[in-house]
Amino acid sequence: MFVAGRSADKIEQVAKTIASKGGSADAVVTETTREEDVIRLFDHAMTPRAGLDSLDLVAYNAGNNRKLDFRELSAELFEDFWRIGCFGGFLVGREAARRLVPLGRGTVLFTGASGSMRGKPGFAHFAAAKAGLRMLAQSMAREFGPQGIHVAHVVIDGGINGDRLRLNRPEIVQERGEDGLLGVDAIAETYWQLYRQPRSAWAQEIDLRPYKENF
Amino acid sequence: MFVAGRSADKIEQVAKTIASKGGSADAVVTETTREEDVIRLFDHAMTPRAGLDSLDLVAYNAGNNRKLDFRELSAELFEDFWRIGCFGGFLVGREAARRLVPLGRGTVLFTGASGSMRGKPGFAHFAAAKAGLRMLAQSMAREFGPQGIHVAHVVIDGGINGDRLRLNRPEIVQERGEDGLLGVDAIAETYWQLYRQPRSAWAQEIDLRPYKENF
Amino acid sequence: MFVAGRSADKIEQVAKTIASKGGSADAVVTETTREEDVIRLFDHAMTPRAGLDSLDLVAYNAGNNRKLDFRELSAELFEDFWRIGCFGGFLVGREAARRLVPLGRGTVLFTGASGSMRGKPGFAHFAAAKAGLRMLAQSMAREFGPQGIHVAHVVIDGGINGDRLRLNRPEIVQERGEDGLLGVDAIAETYWQLYRQPRSAWAQEIDLRPYKENF
Amino acid sequence: MFVAGRSADKIEQVAKTIASKGGSADAVVTETTREEDVIRLFDHAMTPRAGLDSLDLVAYNAGNNRKLDFRELSAELFEDFWRIGCFGGFLVGREAARRLVPLGRGTVLFTGASGSMRGKPGFAHFAAAKAGLRMLAQSMAREFGPQGIHVAHVVIDGGINGDRLRLNRPEIVQERGEDGLLGVDAIAETYWQLYRQPRSAWAQEIDLRPYKENF
User: Fold this and answer.
1) Which of A102, C30, D43, D168 has its CA 20 to 30 A from that of D146?
2) Low-confidence ranges of chain A (pLDDT < 50)
3) Subunits that touch chain C (at least 3 Cβ pairs < 8 angstroms)?
4) Helices B124-144 and B75-82, interaxial angle, to 10°?
5) Residue A85 φ then ψ, to 5°
6) Mutating which of C70, C78, C134, C147 best tests the B interface, going by the most B Cβ atoms within 10 A?
7) What is the pTM of this model?
8) pLDDT tier at B49 (50, 70, 90 boundaries)?
9) Are residues A176 and A212 in contact, defined by beta-carbon separation less than 8 angstroms?
10) Is C175 helix (H, G, I), strand (E, B) or coil?
11) What is the 3-state secondary structure (H, E, C) of D42-92?
12) Are C153 and C103 in contact (CB under 8 A)?
């Protein structure tokens, strides 16, 4: 398995966790908005290795979110959100298509948000990027599905019960209570089930939210 | 498990198949568009039984489809499609909510179609019913999710590789080839995975189609 | 012009208002959920009259709304909402198609609501009917557009500044302030503009809401 | 009126046409993807002029479309489509909001396409940009509507009966026949009607297509 991300610390931590549970993972520092990084990552990941099947699952999960005052929003910030939320997904999706289509199999999963389908005040920058990513996923699904590549878009709607929220906003974790935030393992399980779907019944889009989430 | 349907022959066949695989199923003849039948089915299914957990998964799967000339469509036929495609879902959904909400848990799954989101020529009757069922599922999900009931809508897009198509339109099965139609087991697996989702990450809607399906 | 509705008083009042402004309108008592009433209305309206062009604009505007407890909702009430919200639209839409398609021109407008696209708690009955009406409009548009019939769906999102609200809930009118509710003339103007659209650029769907409305 | 665009020739031609019909228009060469150009355009347009009301209608109409092979698509081209299709809309939308919100009135119209709501094979680059623009319009509408600014998104679905198509693909004009392509005047009329809508009934989204268009 390959864990790619901007921060060496973070992805090595993930790789170690995987190793500690008996798995095996390579941490590859990657700036997903830089074309050469993405190409290098795929070159590395697709290199045949003794005893290993070739790569066949790609998950694009980059992104962040923040409410911002629209009239104060700088052009740079609007662009940054697009780079990480949409452009990086294009680079990864294109490389995945280039490598997987010739093999006739593989799964490419993109992570969306409620902003993928709806623009709320203060989130134009986020929704514009995420809706773009969703269209990318749809176009890829329609084009590459018949060639054996499963492309799906997972709409993650709600706060994630992970380190970021627990550290920065412990009061939210408290307030929502158990299962009131999206469980990391539960999200991962859905990605895994998407990967496992036989090609006779592929999902293109699924939404996930905690049972208490207002939507 | 309870298998409910209009035709005793069909549902007993299903019950036998389940029994032959080591499961156990009651066939209950039910006209899903008749309120008293649906209530009786739930009365029966919710009766406590030694050694059995109480019912906690309901799947509404009734419906059929047919292209019809809109200008020739009789009021009766338009209504029939709604009765089976939407009204029966209401009766089942309401009974499920009545019985499950007090328990604070349970899963209710509704089967949709591409007509649930889009009206094509010759399918007004079908789309009107299916879109209604989808709204029913959404309303229930929004209302009963926070009370612990998982309500999801599964959009089945494409022909199903089942008896109906194999008997009536063998040429389509031929033409689409292996995995070109929706596999029954693959569909069932997705319903099962929805049932298994922990409440920290519930799906409300998912679409399923064969890899070759144009959409 | 023909004003059709269930209550003779109301529609005669409308006809009088139209006459007082120099127009001319026939009030035709019609139960829109009764097939023979709808057919009779069209028979009447399509009868050639000296000095008058034949009918070429049909607007289906029936319906009401009310929040209802889902678990207490009777089968009869669920059906009633569908009869007025969707089935009556089918009867009117079908008659319109039967009469207008041979002429190769005409406009059919259906009135929707935010419930046409989204099911909220306590509104399953309303959303199921309205989403059905929307699919009916879509199917008709796709089928009859190329035959010269303009079919559009107008999503009315918000309270209407009309008699019903002013009499029953004057506090809302007060609270929203001027232009905070949908103006009747403003709605009518949009219907009029849809009617006026040349066939080289027809709208199929448009939403209308007051500037203050949260959506 | 101000006509802004990349090519001096084109916009001066438009300004001349307007003048020849008794109107008055300034052609302002503007690269809509360049922040300083957009700011300068608004500075210019918002300068009070004797005998003229201040600007209160902004239409963002930039963009182009082309089917491209996804796997061969360069990062530069993907970005270019976003710059013109979405980022330029952000720059214009933000400047419009900055200038109009303090006045408490004004209309901002964005031009969409069927790609705004759906990603087709070979159009990922276009759909990703257009869906982003749509979310921008939605966010702005939700935020600035209550402050008196009308923001709407017009989905233009189909070929436009304009110079580009008539010069480059005369066979399409031929094949579609009269009214089979979107009329420029008919489109303009809809923009005009949106501008004229009173704030008691504003449209946020409308789609336009020729009567023959398949959708």
Assistant:
1) D43
2) none
3) B, D
4) 30
5) -85, -25
6) C70
7) 0.97
8) confident
9) yes
10) helix
11) HHHHHCCECCECCCCEEEECCCCCCCCCHHHCCHHHHHHHHHHHHHHHHHH
12) no
How distant is the alpha carbon of residue B209 from its chain centre?
16
Confidence at residue D48, expressed as pLDDT on a 0 to 100 scale:
85
Q: Which residues of chain D have pLDDT under 50?
A: none
d(CA B96, CA A46): 49
- For testing contact with chain C, the best of D161, D165, D200, D212 (most C CBs within 10 A): D200
Establish, for the pair of chains B and C, how many residue pairs have beta carbons separated by less than 8 Å: 133
Contact A2, A42 (CB under 8 A): no
Dihedral of the alpha carbons of B73, B79, B85, B87, in degrees to the nearest 10: 170
Pairwise CA distance, residues C159 & B112, whole Å: 31
Chain-chain contact of D201 with C212 (C-beta, under 8 angstroms): no
Cα-based distances in Å from A131 to A65, D67, D127, D155: 14, 20, 9, 16
Say whether D124 and A140 touch across the interface (CB within 8 A): yes
Inter-chain contact A90–D127, Cβ cutoff 8 Å? no
CA distance C184 to chain D (A): 9
Q: Which residue has the tokens 């940054």?
A: A80
**Residue A122: half-sphere exposure toward Cβ, Cα within 13 Å:** 5
The whole-angstrom distance between A110's CA and the closest CA on chain B is: 15
The chain C residue lying nearest B100, using CA atoms, is C71
Q: What is the ipTM, given to two decimal places? A: 0.96
